[in-house]
């Protein structure tokens, strides 16, 4: 019993194009031909084609299919690598489901990071934009601390004073506001201190993140507000006036 290319492809639930490609890259031996020139595929070809399909269905790259058949150690390594990748994919999908569940809750805002809808209620557009950028560059632990600090809402009037600070505010006004903000600048004095740790994996990524954050602050806040934030940070971390 032999089969044509089309019949073989149908039996394996694949395509003629795929069968021909496997011949081209050496994964599937070329069969003998009938006197009329047509290929005659045998059971061994169907078996091999089904093996290839099984392995690729498990995620084995075509480039490694031939190698793992003859190398048990490589086969184990390849399967472990695929399993690790699948585990990461499952975790990513589970996280997506958790985020979707949160976003489906009433009152959830899409213009702030997941979980920040309640905390970001009184914030202005620039603060919301900064939160989104923070979530991209800072660790989950850092963002959780930021969220807890915002939810504590220590002084709404102080937030408003900072938002309304004009760019031409004089030095005394800036210093006075910085001293008011200092206890909250890095979460100092809060139940959940804020330590802004970058999640960058390399020095290059860290530099890029700091540059992006600097650009964001410049774009979202006026010079007086940025100066106040700097002063508050210095006071909070050193205890001295800048």
H/E element order: HHEEHHHHHHHHH
- Our Rg estimate from Cα atoms comes to 30 Å
Q: What number of domains?
A: 3
Please identify the structural class as seen in this structure: mainly alpha
DSSP strand count: 2
Biggest sheet features: 2 strands, antiparallel
Our measurement of the CA-to-CA distance between the termini, rounded to an integer number of angstroms, reads 89 Å
**Percentage beta strand:** under 5%
Q: What is the percent of helical residues?
A: 55-70%
- Strand order in the sheet with the most strands: 1-2
Let me know the average pLDDT. 88
Shape: elongated
Number of helices: 11
Low-confidence stretches: none
Structure write-up:
- The protein is an all-alpha fold.
- It has three domains: 5-69, Multidrug-efflux Transporter Regulator, Chain: A, Domain 2 (Orthogonal Bundle); 71-104; 125-238, no CATH class.
- The protein has helices at 5-11, 16-24, 43-57, 62-70, 72-103, 125-137, 140-152, 156-163, 171-185, 203-220, 223-238; strands at 32-33, 39-40.
- It has a two-stranded antiparallel sheet with strand order 1-2.
- A hairpin with a 5-residue loop joins strand 1 and strand 2 (39-40).
- The chain starts with a helix and ends with a helix.
Quick description:
The protein has 242 residues and is mainly α. The protein contains eleven helices and two strands. The protein has three domains: 65 residues, Multidrug-efflux Transporter Regulator, Chain: A, Domain 2; 34 residues; 114 residues, no CATH class.
């Amino acid at each position: 019993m032999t089969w044509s290319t089309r019949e073989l492809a149908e039996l394996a639930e694949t395509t003629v194009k795929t069968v021909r490609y496997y011949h081209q890259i050496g994964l599937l031996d070329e069969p003998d031909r009938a006197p009329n020139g047509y290929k005659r595929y045998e059971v061994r070809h169907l078996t091999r084609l089904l093996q290839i399909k099984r392995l690729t269905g498990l995620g084995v790259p075509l480039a490694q299919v031939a190698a793992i058949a003859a190398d048990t150690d490589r086969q184990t390594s390849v399967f472990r690598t695929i399993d690790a990748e699948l585990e990461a994919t499952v975790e990513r999908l589970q996280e997506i489901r958790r985020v979707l569940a949160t976003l489906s809750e009433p009152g959830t805002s899409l213009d702030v990071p997941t979980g920040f809808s309640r905390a970001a209620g009184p914030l202005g557009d620039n603060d919301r934009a900064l939160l989104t950028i923070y979530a991209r560059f800072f660790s989950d632990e850092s963002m959780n601390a930021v969220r807890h600090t915002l939810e504590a809402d220590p002084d709404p009037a102080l937030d408003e004073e900072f938002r309304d600070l004009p760019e031409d505010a004089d030095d005394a006004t800036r210093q006075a506001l910085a001293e008011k903000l200092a206890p909250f600048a890095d979460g100092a004095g809060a139940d959940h201190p804020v330590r802004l740790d970058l999640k960058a994996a390399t020095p290059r990524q860290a530099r890029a993140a700091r540059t992006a954050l600097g650009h964001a602050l410049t774009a979202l806040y006026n010079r007086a507000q940025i100066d106040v934030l700097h002063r508050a940070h210095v006071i909070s971390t050193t205890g001295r006036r800048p």
